[in-house]
Amino acid sequence: MPQPDFVLRLARDEADLIAAQRLRYDVFVSELGSDGALVDHDARLERDAFDPFFDHLILFDRARPDMPAVGVYRLLRGDCLSDGPDGLNRFYSEDEYDLSVLKASGRKLLELGRSCLHPDYRGGGAMMVLWGGLADYVAQHQIEVLFGVASFHGTDIAPLKAPLSLLHHRHLAPDHLRVKARPAHFQTMNLLAEDQIERPAAMRAVPSLIKAYLRLGGFVGEGAFVDHDFNTTDVCLVLDTEQMSAKHRAIYTRTPRP
Q1: Which of 107, 163, 195, 221 lies in the 20 to 30 Å Cα band around 237?
Q2: Cα(158)–Cα(225) distance, integer angstroms
């Protein structure tokens, strides 16, 4: 593979959005087996009703013109919600989690979602480029709390008992950040006593994106959500920029790039 020549930007037009949706289809539908009411299988686009209201952070590689996009992040600021007839009055993850504790906090919120990379770019510098762009966005909009659902692959809880229990015992959000899975679909994460967990093996089973947020000082909400449409078991991650370490706070509160 040639040396990457990355370009990172927010989607500017329909062509950019289609590039993001095509990558999402390749990852979430073809690779992970998800589906949805608005997924376009003929055009190979993973889309939903929320797309028009989000900012889409997209990573391109000019060295690979055959690829429309190699990485994406979907972003929705709390100050963009609106009760107007043409607006969006809720976050995407509110279908799965009660976010009242965050929405009532008066703090500046940013919902993250649909994060994915093309397989050729995993484990390299592409994720750091995406995170650098996210850091600039956070700084520009003075975001205080980041949150969003992240997923384990599959809907069978049995093999996930140890990693879910580890997250519950070691990384549960404090009360003022503790969002909760909706009662109708609440899946407890307290499935094993802490002394029954083989911690190294359990942590290896935690997806890398979740571990990355935990290293930044993130927490998980209470309860998981089993998403049969997406073939995932979701947890809600919450990251308070005020509680990050000095090193990581410097990354996420730095002056935006010109």
Answers
A1: 195
A2: 14
Helix (H) / strand (E) containing 102? helix 100-103
Six-digit token string for 39: 């997924």
Report how far residue 3's alpha carbon sits from residue 81's, in angstroms, rounded to the nearest whole number: 40
pLDDT digits (tens, 9 = 90+) for 44-86: 999 999 999 999 999 999 999 888 899 999 999 999 998 777 7
Pairing outcome for strands 109-117 and 145-153: parallel
Q: Indicate the pTM of the whole model.
A: 0.90
Percent of the chain with pLDDT over 70: 94
Cross-strand pairs, 111: 76, 147
Q: In the structure encoding, which two tokens stand for residue 234, read together?
A: 């979701």
Alpha helices (H) in the chain, listed in sequence order? 14-24, 100-103, 126-140, 161-171, 199-204, 208-215, 246-252
Cα-based angle 213, 130, 78 (whole degrees, multiple of 5) = 65
User: 59: Cβ–Cβ under 8 A, 6 or more apart, which residues?
Assistant: 6, 7, 8, 69, 70, 71, 72, 117, 121, 126, 129, 130, 133
What value, to the nearest 5°, has the Cα angle with vertex 17 and ends 15 and 20? 115
Neighbouring CB atoms inside 10 A of 142's CB total: 9
- Which two three-digit tokens encode residue 94? 């509110």
**Domains of the chain, start order:** 6-252 (3.40.630.30)
CA distances, 256 to each of 2, 57, 164 (Å): 29, 15, 36
